[in-house]
Design a protein that fits this description.
Rossmann fold; single chain
Length: 118
């Protein structure tokens, strides 16, 4: 399964995403964010792709940009999604873009017990 993760505002979100990458069993990892949200990937670099997104756009334009930038990058019918980072506008735009592909969504989180689906 592919992991799609939003990197935006939110203290500790980089750690959450980094842990998901390290502890999850992913075929591919797609990180979405702007210039300020890039962080150094230590684990599984060969399967990680950073996709630059202008997160300052209005919600409809942001959804359209997510769709444009993700087109052709998701190969399965379902993705794991991390939205531990970001705000409601960014979350709604990303979820809308994904379900319009269409692709199923499983929310993923890293807990003390490991990676879980929510």
């Amino acid at each position: 399964m592919e992991l799609v993760a939003l990197l935006s505002s939110g203290e500790g979100s980089g750690g959450q995403v980094s842990g998901l990458i390290k502890h999850g069993e992913w075929e591919k990892v797609i990180l979405l964010g702007d210039d300020s949200s890039q962080f150094k990937i230590e684990d599984k670099k060969e399967i990680v792709e950073f996709v630059k997104i202008d997160l300052s756009k209005k919600i409809k334009d942001l959804r359209d940009e997510f769709q444009k930038r993700l087109k052709g990058k998701i190969s399965g019918t379902e993705v794991a999604l991390s939205i531990a980072s970001g705000d409601g506008k960014e979350h709604m735009a990303l979820i809308s873009a994904l379900i319009n592909f269409p692709v199923g969504i499983r929310f993923a989180a890293l807990t003390k017990e490991g990676v879980i689906d929510l």
